Protein backbone atom coordinates (compact mmCIF):
# COMPACT_ATOMS: atom_id res chain seq x y z
CA UNK A 1 0.00 0.00 0.00
CA UNK A 2 1.28 3.44 -0.89
CA UNK A 3 1.56 5.33 2.39
CA UNK A 4 1.71 9.08 2.83
CA UNK A 5 5.46 8.98 3.43
CA UNK A 6 6.02 6.91 0.30
CA UNK A 7 3.93 9.37 -1.70
CA UNK A 8 5.87 12.34 -0.30
CA UNK A 9 9.13 10.56 -1.11
CA UNK A 10 8.04 9.87 -4.68
CA UNK A 11 6.91 13.46 -5.24
CA UNK A 12 10.18 14.82 -3.81
CA UNK A 13 12.16 12.41 -5.99
CA UNK A 14 10.20 13.53 -9.05
CA UNK A 15 10.86 17.18 -8.23
CA UNK A 16 14.59 16.59 -8.67
CA UNK A 17 15.88 15.87 -5.18
CA UNK A 18 18.25 12.98 -4.56
CA UNK A 19 17.18 9.88 -2.58
CA UNK A 20 18.47 11.11 0.79
CA UNK A 21 16.91 14.57 0.46
CA UNK A 22 13.65 12.99 -0.71
CA UNK A 23 13.58 10.73 2.34
CA UNK A 24 14.20 13.73 4.59
CA UNK A 25 11.39 15.63 2.84
CA UNK A 26 9.10 12.64 3.36
CA UNK A 27 9.66 12.84 7.11
CA UNK A 28 12.26 10.16 7.80
CA UNK A 29 14.98 10.91 10.36
CA UNK A 30 18.38 12.14 9.22
CA UNK A 31 20.06 8.98 10.52
CA UNK A 32 17.94 6.60 8.44
CA UNK A 33 17.27 8.85 5.44
CA UNK A 34 20.10 7.46 3.31
CA UNK A 35 19.07 3.82 3.81
CA UNK A 36 15.35 4.55 3.54
CA UNK A 37 15.87 6.58 0.38
CA UNK A 38 17.67 3.69 -1.24
CA UNK A 39 14.98 1.21 -0.13
CA UNK A 40 12.08 3.39 -1.27
CA UNK A 41 13.69 4.08 -4.65
CA UNK A 42 13.44 0.33 -5.34
CA UNK A 43 9.94 -0.10 -3.87
CA UNK A 44 7.52 -1.32 -6.58
CA UNK A 45 4.65 0.80 -5.24
CA UNK A 46 6.75 3.96 -5.35
CA UNK A 47 7.97 3.12 -8.85
CA UNK A 48 4.38 2.50 -10.00
CA UNK A 49 3.26 5.81 -8.47
CA UNK A 50 6.06 7.67 -10.25
CA UNK A 51 5.17 5.98 -13.54
CA UNK A 52 1.48 6.93 -13.11
CA UNK A 53 2.36 10.53 -12.31
CA UNK A 54 4.68 10.81 -15.30
CA UNK A 55 1.93 9.57 -17.62
CA UNK A 56 -0.51 12.24 -16.43
CA UNK A 57 -0.81 15.28 -18.63
CA UNK A 58 -1.04 18.68 -17.03
CA UNK A 59 -3.06 21.33 -18.83
CA UNK A 60 -1.76 24.84 -18.36
CA UNK A 61 -3.85 27.89 -19.19
CA UNK A 62 -2.26 30.41 -21.52
CA UNK A 63 -3.53 33.31 -19.41
CA UNK A 64 -3.57 32.89 -15.62
CA UNK A 65 -7.01 32.95 -14.02
CA UNK A 66 -6.32 36.08 -12.01
CA UNK A 67 -5.61 38.06 -15.22
CA UNK A 68 -8.58 36.90 -17.25
CA UNK A 69 -11.34 39.40 -17.89
CA UNK A 70 -14.65 38.66 -16.31
CA UNK A 71 -17.33 37.66 -18.76
CA UNK A 72 -19.88 40.19 -19.86
CA UNK A 73 -23.47 39.89 -18.55
CA UNK A 74 -24.65 39.07 -22.09
CA UNK A 75 -22.45 35.97 -22.14
CA UNK A 76 -24.04 34.52 -19.03
CA UNK A 77 -26.65 31.83 -19.65
CA UNK A 78 -30.24 32.87 -19.18
CA UNK A 79 -32.49 31.42 -16.53
CA UNK A 80 -34.08 28.17 -17.41
CA UNK A 81 -37.48 28.50 -18.90
CA UNK A 82 -40.33 27.62 -16.56
CA UNK A 83 -41.72 25.21 -19.12
CA UNK A 84 -38.45 23.29 -19.25
CA UNK A 85 -38.71 22.32 -15.58
CA UNK A 86 -41.52 19.85 -14.98
CA UNK A 87 -43.93 21.11 -12.36
CA UNK A 88 -46.25 19.00 -10.21
CA UNK A 89 -49.83 19.23 -11.42
CA UNK A 90 -53.24 18.05 -10.18
CA UNK A 91 -52.82 14.54 -11.58
CA UNK A 92 -49.35 14.08 -10.08
CA UNK A 93 -49.05 16.22 -6.92
CA UNK A 94 -46.00 14.38 -5.63
CA UNK A 95 -43.17 14.08 -8.07
CA UNK A 96 -40.34 11.92 -6.82
CA UNK A 97 -36.89 13.38 -7.39
CA UNK A 98 -35.14 11.97 -10.42
CA UNK A 99 -32.83 9.13 -9.46
CA UNK A 100 -29.71 8.49 -11.47
CA UNK A 101 -28.88 4.83 -11.10
CA UNK A 102 -25.23 3.92 -11.47
CA UNK A 103 -24.49 0.34 -12.40
CA UNK A 104 -22.85 -1.77 -9.73
CA UNK A 105 -23.75 0.45 -6.76
CA UNK A 106 -26.35 -0.80 -4.31
CA UNK A 107 -29.06 1.58 -3.18
CA UNK A 108 -30.75 1.82 0.21
CA UNK A 109 -34.47 2.04 0.92
CA UNK A 110 -34.57 5.83 0.59
CA UNK A 111 -33.06 5.72 -2.90
CA UNK A 112 -29.64 7.00 -1.90
CA UNK A 113 -26.54 4.99 -2.74
CA UNK A 114 -24.88 3.13 0.10
CA UNK A 115 -21.80 5.33 0.70
CA UNK A 116 -19.56 2.55 1.95
CA UNK A 117 -20.24 0.31 -1.04
CA UNK A 118 -20.10 3.24 -3.47
CA UNK A 119 -16.68 4.29 -2.18
CA UNK A 120 -15.47 0.70 -2.36
CA UNK A 121 -16.61 0.57 -5.97
CA UNK A 122 -14.85 3.87 -6.73
CA UNK A 123 -11.64 2.56 -5.17
CA UNK A 124 -11.74 -0.55 -7.33
CA UNK A 125 -12.44 1.41 -10.52
CA UNK A 126 -10.05 4.31 -9.90
CA UNK A 127 -6.68 3.11 -8.70
CA UNK A 128 -5.35 6.68 -8.82
CA UNK A 129 -7.65 7.72 -5.96
CA UNK A 130 -5.93 8.16 -2.63
CA UNK A 131 -7.23 5.20 -0.58
CA UNK A 132 -6.96 7.04 2.71
CA UNK A 133 -8.97 9.98 1.35
CA UNK A 134 -11.66 7.72 -0.11
CA UNK A 135 -11.89 5.73 3.12
CA UNK A 136 -12.23 8.92 5.16
CA UNK A 137 -14.95 10.21 2.83
CA UNK A 138 -16.84 6.91 3.06
CA UNK A 139 -16.59 7.01 6.85
CA UNK A 140 -17.94 10.56 6.99
CA UNK A 141 -20.81 9.70 4.62
CA UNK A 142 -21.65 6.49 6.46
CA UNK A 143 -22.31 8.43 9.66
CA UNK A 144 -25.31 10.06 8.00
CA UNK A 145 -26.83 6.89 6.59
CA UNK A 146 -25.84 4.09 8.96
CA UNK A 147 -26.66 5.24 12.46
CA UNK A 148 -25.28 3.59 15.57
CA UNK A 149 -27.62 1.27 17.35
CA UNK A 150 -26.90 2.26 20.93
CA UNK A 151 -28.55 1.45 24.23
CA UNK A 152 -31.78 3.25 25.00
CA UNK A 153 -31.70 6.01 27.59
CA UNK A 154 -33.52 5.95 30.92
CA UNK A 155 -36.50 7.95 29.70
CA UNK A 156 -37.04 5.91 26.56
CA UNK A 157 -36.63 2.68 28.55
CA UNK A 158 -39.35 3.87 30.97
CA UNK A 159 -41.60 4.76 28.04
CA UNK A 160 -41.08 1.35 26.45
CA UNK A 161 -41.80 -0.40 29.75
CA UNK A 162 -44.99 1.65 30.18
CA UNK A 163 -46.15 0.73 26.66
CA UNK A 164 -45.55 -2.97 27.35
CA UNK A 165 -47.46 -2.80 30.63
CA UNK A 166 -50.42 -1.00 29.07
UniProtKB/TrEMBL annotation:
GO BP: chromosome organization
Residue spans of biased composition, Basic and acidic residues class: 69-82, 150-166
Region (Disordered), start-end ranges: 61-104, 144-166
Domain of life of the source: Bacteria
InterPro entries (UniProt xref): Terminase_Gp1_N_sf, Terminase_ssu
Pfam families hit by this protein: Terminase_2
Name of the protein in its database record: Terminase small subunit
Lineage: Bacteria, Pseudomonadati, Pseudomonadota, Gammaproteobacteria, Enterobacterales
Amino acid sequence: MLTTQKRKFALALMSGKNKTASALAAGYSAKTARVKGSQLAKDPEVLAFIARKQCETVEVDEVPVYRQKKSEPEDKPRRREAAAIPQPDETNPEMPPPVVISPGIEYMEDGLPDPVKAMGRLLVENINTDPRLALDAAYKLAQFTHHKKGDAGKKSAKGDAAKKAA
